[in-house]
Amino acid sequence: MKGLLKDLTMKKYYYNEEQESYDAIVVGTGISGGWAAKELCEKGLKTLVLERGRMVRHITDYPTAYKDPWDFPNGGEPTQEDLKKQPKQNRTGYTTNVASALWFVNDLEHPYNEIKRFDWMRGYHVGGRSIMWGRHSYRWSDIDFTANRREGIAVDWPVRYKDIAPWYDKVETFIGVSGENLRLKQLPDGQFLPMMELNCVEQRFREKVSQNFNGRVVTAGRVANITGTKKFEGRQHCMFRNRCIRGCPFGAYFSSNSSTLPAAERTGNLTLRPDSIVHEVMYDPDTKRATGVKVIDRVTKEAHEFKAKVIFLCASAVASTSILMQSRSDRFPNGMGNDSDQLGRNIMDHHLGVGAQGKFDGLEDKYYKGRKPNGVYIPRFRNLGGDSDRKDYKRGFGYQGSAGRGNWDDAVAELSFGKDLKEAILKPGGWTMGIGGFGEVLPYEENRMTLDYDKLDGWGLPTVTFDAEFKENEWAMRKDMKESAVEMLEKAGLRDVQPFDNPGALGLGIHEMGTARMGRDKRTSVLNGNNQIHEVPNVYVTDGSFMASAACVNPSLTYMAFTARAANHAAQQLKKGNI
Amino acid sequence: MGQALGYYVATPTLIGMVQSCKNDKASEWTPDFLTPDEGEALTKLVDIILPKTDTPSASEVQVHLFIDKFIDQVMEKEQQDFVKMSMGQFLEKALKDSGKEKAGDLTSGDLEPVLSEALKVTKEDDVKNFEAIEQYHEAIAEGKEPLLDDGISRFAFANNLRGLTIWGYKISEYVGEEVLAYLPIPAEYIPCEDAQKLTGSMAWSL
Fold first, then answer.
1. Which tens digits make up the pLDDT trace of B97-154?
2. d(CA B140, CA B155)
3. For A268, which DSSP code?
4. Would the CB atoms of B179 and A426 count as touching at under 8 Å?
5. What is the CATH number assigned to the segment(s) A20-76+124-178+225-348+444-451+512-578?
6. Closest Cα to residue A316, out of A506, A141, A479, A123?
7. CB interface of B with A, residues 143-182, below 8 Å
8. Model pLDDT for residues A346-405, shown as the tens digit of each residue
9. Which of A90, A303, A324, A407 is buried deepest, with most CB atoms within 10 A?
């Protein structure tokens, strides 16, 4: 009994005991970290995975997973007291609902600085944002990979679609993505489970858009939820509860916790140490290699060092970049791998919060069963050549959206109050539909993050300062995003179509990326085409840091594919003795 | 109370309870944010908005408690001030029209006509009202003197109250599980089917 108690209170290492040294260290357990852990472990490497936040065990540690609105105080709305701890996280307007607030940082414990407003949304725990992510998973095409080169913007990607395609195949097959193939040049097909069907109004919208807009397509979102009958180890098919953000007791959507970390564990090669804040990669100037990492324990504040032959930084773009910036030495006075001075620069995101919604009359006798954690997706239709090309902005955008019943405005206005109103509000309500765009943000050198060594956090580490903003291309694109949304909804027969345009700031898309970009030339990039730091080939960076441009699609699938590719490259390089 | 009367002999020690039973007070609840009198009025108002039918009234599923707590804990100070101001205007009218002095003495009969008038707006007035309310809030933000027509204040209060009452009612446990169609784990998705077949034409609660 005493031993069990000791185990529960003192436990620092999971799945294996502490080792003298490791073949590999992975920093971070989110979307990319989980994949690095899985691939490296499966290649036989003894891997130490370090997560700065607390342990989160799949299913056991999802406290809000089954709660109904009446199980939360105030219907789940955060109180003013709650919001004192999450004023910046609350900028999203939804993450701070009590059902999900536990996954987002206490802003008072994790402050950052803003020269211009930047919305940095994250949580620190095993699984990272793979617990809260929106699950939309789209491949890049060569239209995206070649855009910088064709337009003379930033630096050319050192890879092309054919290099990544087999890794997209591998990732989709392992994680499970539902969707349909469309044979679109701008949105490559994939390995899909059955798509989630469109409801009555979404289906109608799909038909009307196809009829009225040449070549434009409406499909279901390609979401990493299990549909159909294919089996996934330790996971079940989606139960259509739409509570993914809370953690899924069925493991029905992809997260590190439900999927990649268990796979890593099954190899016997995984050692996981939560509460481990990595703050520096150690460098040996004689071998010109990294030797390990320095850690501060989140709880005890004790210092630790861990050694390994290869390091994977997967802490998320801002965090991995911070670690590199903090890894200063005589060889790298401006941060490890920063000969190019590009570290921290070119920060991108997707801009969103622009679109339209409207009401649909009819289909009053129709309804749906199940709460689909998904809706429609409209792939990019601008700047693809010919008539689709715009003079007012470059690149493009896609839309996500959905239709549903739940509008009682008209009943309320007509019936006012009393028993007739009561009867009306207990019925399904009118149909509405809304779509919101996700737009590509260009890489601008001056959009950057730096570290402030005068403002230290509770662990004595410098805080991040953001100096980045949307610029002309983004604003021009948003105008079209808004107008196109209105146009499509109206053509589909909706009335009272109202546009919305709430740009917020960079970061609100929660797809921040680009701060240690890859490129062909070490003078203008931090990483090479294999995600290795040009000058330190045994350090791989495979979270959003590596992105040389942003495209307009949700990036997580791409992070996973590049991570799997890089991990396999690292294993090969180690075997050959090259790193 | 009725049960107590039937169950026990009305001894002198119970006379206090019997007497309080004869008052019109709907509850002995002490609100967190509203004054006791405002709480009395709120309890009656939510039941005017969503009265008892073959399903419970709003107060029967504690919507008045929910709303008071929501104002107290969730609303920002500026929103709370607006509720106080607009509710004040609303109750002032009810007192004036009924000739009463204490808001706690207002009956449903006193409150209903004020509610009715406040919510009777044309679509054009609706737009004008919201513009006026927006200007009121902007004035506060700019540190200027905020002004809002009394009638629009009453509308704002009534409209906000109605919204909160409907929401509070529908997310109450009883209504969510017993009145609306409750299905915590659907296990499948049927995209387009007859509402009558799926839920007897009731709304899903979740």
1. 999 999 999 999 999 999 999 999 888 898 999 999 999 999 999 999 999 999 999 9
2. 19
3. T
4. yes
5. 3.50.50.60
6. A123
7. 162, 166-173, 175-177, 179-180
8. 999 999 999 999 999 999 999 999 999 999 999 999 999 999 999 999 999 999 999 999
9. A324
DSSP 8-state secondary structure symbol assigned to residue A548: S
Mutation to test the A interface, candidates B74, B165, B202, most A Cβ within 10 Å: B74
Q: How far is CA B119 from CA A391, A413, B80, B96, in A?
A: 49, 8, 21, 18
Nearest by CB to residue B192, choosing from A75, A368, A425, is A368
Strand intervals (E) in A81-180: 113-114
Q: Domain locations in chain A?
A: 20-76+124-178+225-348+444-451+512-578, 184-221+350-440+470-504
Going by C-alpha positions, the residue among A437, A335, A430, A326 that lies closest to residue A380 is A437
Report CB contact under 8 Å: A428, B203: yes
Asked if B76's CB is within 8 angstroms of A365's CB, the reply is no
Residue A219: how many CB atoms within 10 A of its CB?
Answer: 18
CB-defined contacts A:B, below 8 A: 145
Contacts of B30 by beta carbon, 8 Å cutoff, 6+ apart: B36, B39
Residue B49: closest CA among B40, B41, B58: B58
3-state DSSP of A504-542: CCCCCCCCCECCCCECCCCCCCCECCCCEECCEEEEEEC
Gap from A139 CA to chain B (nearest CA, Å): 26
Q: Which residue of A has its CA nearest to B70?
A: A74
Joined together, the tokens standing for residue A118 give 């930047």
CB distance B176–A405 less than 8 Å?
Answer: no
